[in-house]
């Protein structure tokens, strides 16, 4: 049966996929035109659907031809709270296939194929029934779901969910729509969805951060407590946390109360003149040792670190005030502080310079892998044979054989992993031998011919793989290699042979002096990153690779010294946050040809191939650089993020303590949360009129009372997702929940 490859719908073709065509990666790179992928949407909410039907549906929607055979079988469940874009649908299909042990692979232009890559745990297309019920069908069914995020960053949520997911759950981030695609048991997926919803919750009260420069947390804490007590501020209106490691105050509350506390912190966090000769200044954003070096350079006038752009921002007045001043600066790394001994005038100048130099700069995490990709390609072709020279076929006749094995393996050669062509023809000559007792025995002497052709490709090796956090605008250098001696010979003056004294007039021979200079040989990586709080990250890379040439054209290395080979690569990449740039450079190509054969006979035109073996070796060397850059929060911002997550988990625990019982059906939908019980009861009554089973549950966090409206008694996560999708179309922000099965 012919297959119409021009069709834009998936086709099932009866073919077997060779093992060597399989790809080990579970992820598939794909692309759909931006306008089409973001504007067109698709409803993908299936309680149980055959994977073949899902492939057909998504193939038709995306306009792609997907080829697969009868091995592609299975049943999956797809759960989405809203319609999905074509890009999201394609990723959901890829994740669902990987759940069943298959993967989407690009084929010819515009075509894709499905190949089996591994045995995976998934839902079988056949379900055993015991006592009239499906075993594990409701509880252990595997689902694939889209978790859309409104406010939280997908990478931050992924970092929280991954340790909680376990080995049976697959999480795939989709940054384009700020979503997560999760596959696994529906109970586990439902719980992770609940956690993600809490992390994505829009905070009713903003969380604010204030890092103190001039006052310590130990001094500020009692002042803040007294300030709040004097004003009678309750915990319900304002919550305050402190972190001594970063010397920061984190607070959350009503806008009016948060504003008053921020003003109070501004008033008390000011420098106090007249403290004495020794004072402590905290560095908020930059490296303390770097700040100390830059301030010292202001008094000496040397460029030092102050020659940078940030150092140039220091005013000429600060330089003038510090000129000739007697002061000293010690650095305390643990508290990120400068211990300064100076006169009152110098203290004032140092404080002003620090405020200018210690500006907030973006931290950037950079992961770089520099690999040398060698692809040696070996090709060989040869013949071997074992044929008779005389027609003798009896024991009393002369038996002569001609044997040619130019390839080494010869008649005993066997096909290997690198063999691409192999053939063997053998025929038993059947020569009998008569023994003393009159019996006969046949000696297996075969007429044999062998043809063998081989090809081998290999790859190596990672040269350097650093991961580091840098400050925007600063240059960093990494070197990996050796420091070798290089002899350098210089001509001297004229030397008299009788005394050996060096002169400049007469003599018999010239003098030579040899010194040894040290040279770095290896990989030198220079990195500079520039970024603000938003927009793209500019990454400047300068890579130098040096080595000693084993074969110098200048002459013997013992006479002329070693010859160094240096290669430089300078590249600039502009990346989105978390994006990876890939650069490949051809370094060199070497070709080696060889031939092994019988003298004279191997030179005969055409027939000489039966007496020789030819081999070719070509080595292509490429330099591959992969660089990934992402923004990193400051330590104080990380403290605030930790508090946000703690509040999210506290809110989830408070809700879980009063969740409705799910003894009959463990899935439900949380429709909304209200501050008034009568509002929640009215909303629940409205959904009950529509035929839903509803419940209102009260929960308390701190001193706040809230009332959640639930639609319960749903048989599966897919049923809950369908109701959530309908509610979303009506304007509700509904969440999927898994209810407790304890009575």
Could you characterize what this model shows?
The structure is a single chain. This protein is α+β, with helices and mostly antiparallel strands. Among the domains are: 39-123, 3-Layer(bab) Sandwich (Phage tail protein beta-alpha-beta fold); 205-268, 2-Layer Sandwich (Ribosomal Protein S8, Chain: A, domain 1); 656-742, Sporulation related repeat (Alpha-Beta Plaits, 2-Layer Sandwich). Strands 20, 21, 22, 25, 26, 27, 33 and 34 form an eight-stranded antiparallel beta sheet that branches. Strands 3-5-11-13-12 form a five-stranded mixed beta sheet, sandwiched between helices.
Helix content: 10-25%
Distance between the termini: 59 Å
Rg, alpha carbons: 38 Å
Q: Beta-sheet strand percentage? A: 35-45%
Strand-pairing-aware structural class = alpha+beta
What is the fold's blueprint, element by element?
Blueprint: E1 11-12, H1 34-39, E2 41-42, E3 46-50, H2 51-62, E4 65-68, E5 75-80, E6 84-85, H3 86-99, E7 102-106, E8 111-116, E9 129-130, E10 133-134, H4 137-140, E11 142-148, H5 154-165, E12 170-174, E13 179-185, H6 186-199, E14 207-211, H7 217-231, E15 238-243, E16 248-253, H8 255-268, E17 278-282, H9 288-300, H10 309-312, H11 316-322, E18 328-332, E19 337-341, H12 344-357, E20 363-388, E21 401-404, E22 419-428, E23 431-434, E24 440-443, E25 446-457, E26 462-464, E27 467-471, E28 475-495, E29 502-503, E30 509-530, E31 537-548, H13 557-560, E32 564-575, E33 580-597, E34 612-632, H14 635-656, E35 667-674, H15 677-689, E36 693-701, E37 704-714, H16 717-729, E38 735-738
């Amino acid at each position: 049966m012919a297959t119409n490859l021009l069709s834009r719908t998936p086709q099932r073709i009866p073919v077997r996929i060779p093992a060597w065509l399989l790809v080990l990666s579970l992820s598939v790179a794909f692309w759909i035109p931006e306008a089409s992928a973001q504007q067109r949407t698709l409803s993908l909410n299936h309680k149980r659907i055959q994977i073949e039907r899902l492939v057909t549906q998504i193939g038709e929607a995306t306009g792609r031809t997907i080829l697969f055979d009868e091995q592609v079988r299975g049943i999956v469940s797809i759960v989405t709270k809203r319609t999905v874009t074509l890009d999201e649908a394609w990723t959901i299909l890829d994740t669902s296939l990987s759940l069943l042990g298959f993967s989407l692979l690009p084929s010819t232009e515009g075509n894709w194929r499905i190949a089996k890559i591994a045995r995976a745990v998934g839902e079988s297309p056949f379900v055993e029934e015991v006592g009239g019920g499906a075993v594990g069908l409701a509880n252990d069914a595997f689902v694939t779901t889209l978790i859309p995020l409104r406010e939280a960053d997908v990478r931050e949520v992924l970092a929280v969910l991954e340790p909680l997911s376990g080995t049976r759950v697959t999480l795939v981030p989709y940054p384009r729509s700020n979503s997560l695609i999760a596959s696994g048991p529906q109970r586990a997926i439902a719980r992770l969805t609940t956690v993600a919803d809490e992390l994505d919750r829009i905070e009713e009260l903003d969380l604010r951060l204030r890092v103190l420069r001039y006052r310590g947390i130990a001094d500020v804490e009692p002042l803040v407590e007294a300030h709040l007590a004097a004003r009678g501020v309750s915990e319900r209106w304002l919550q305050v946390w402190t972190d001594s490691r970063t010397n920061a105050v984190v607070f959350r509350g009503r806008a009016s109360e948060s504003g008053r506390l921020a003003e109070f912190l501004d008033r008390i966090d000011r420098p106090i003149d007249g403290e004495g000769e020794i004072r402590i200044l905290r560095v908020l954003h930059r490296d303390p040792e770097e700040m100390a070096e830059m301030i010292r350079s202001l008094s000496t006038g040397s460029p030092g670190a102050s020659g940078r752009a940030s150092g140039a921002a220091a005013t000429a007045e600060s330089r003038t005030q510090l000129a000739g001043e007697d002061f000293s600066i010690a650095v305390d790394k643990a508290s990120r502080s400068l211990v300064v001994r100076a006169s009152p005038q110098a203290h004032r100048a140092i404080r002003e310079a620090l405020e200018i130099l210690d500006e907030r700069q973006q931290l950037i995490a950079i992961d770089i892998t520099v690999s040398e990709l060698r692809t040696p390609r070996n090709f060989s072709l040869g013949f071997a044979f074992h044929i008779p020279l005389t027609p003798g076929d009896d024991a009393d006749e002369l038996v002569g054989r001609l044997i040619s094995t130019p390839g080494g393996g010869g008649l005993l050669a066997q096909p290997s992993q690198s063999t691409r062509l192999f053939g063997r023809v053998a025929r038993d000559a059947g020569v009998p031998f008569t023994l003393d007792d009159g019996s006969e025995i046949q000696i297996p002497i075969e007429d044999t011919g062998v043809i063998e052709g081989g090809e081998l490709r290999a790859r190596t090796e990672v040269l350097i793989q650093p991961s580091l956090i840098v400050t925007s605008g600063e240059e960093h250098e990494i070197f990996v290699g050796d420091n070798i001696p290089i002899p350098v010979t210089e001509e001297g003056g004229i030397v008299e042979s009788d005394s050996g004294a060096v002169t400049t007039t007469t003599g018999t021979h010239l003098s030579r002096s040899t010194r040894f200079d040290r040279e770095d040989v290896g990989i030198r990586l220079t990195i500079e990153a520039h970024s603000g709080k938003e927009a793209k990250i500019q990454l400047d890379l300068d890579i130098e690779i040096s080595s000693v040439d084993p074969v110098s054209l200048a002459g013997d290395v013992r006479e002329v010294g070693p010859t160094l080979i240096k290669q430089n690569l300078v590249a600039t990449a502009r990346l989105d946050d978390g994006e990876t740039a890939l650069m490949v450079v051809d370094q060199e190509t070497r070709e080696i040809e060889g031939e092994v054969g019988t003298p004279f006979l191997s030179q005969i035109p055409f027939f000489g191939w039966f007496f020789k073996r030819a081999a070719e070796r070509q080595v292509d060397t490429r330099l591959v650089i992969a660089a990934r850059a992402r923004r990193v929060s400051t330590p104080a911002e990380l403290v605030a993020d930790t508090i946000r997550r703690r509040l999210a988990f506290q809110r989830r625990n408070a809700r879980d303590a009063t969740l409705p019982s799910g003894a009959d059906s463990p899935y439900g939908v949380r429709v909304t949360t209200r501050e008034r019980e009568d509002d929640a009861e009215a909303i629940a009554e409205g959904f009950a009129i529509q035929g839903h089973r509803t419940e209102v549950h009260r929960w308390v966090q701190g001193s706040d009372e809230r009332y959640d409206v639930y639609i319960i008694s749903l048989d599966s996560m897919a049923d809950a997702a369908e109701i959530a999708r309908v509610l979303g179309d009506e304007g509700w922000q509904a969440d999927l929940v898994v209810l407790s099965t304890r009575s």
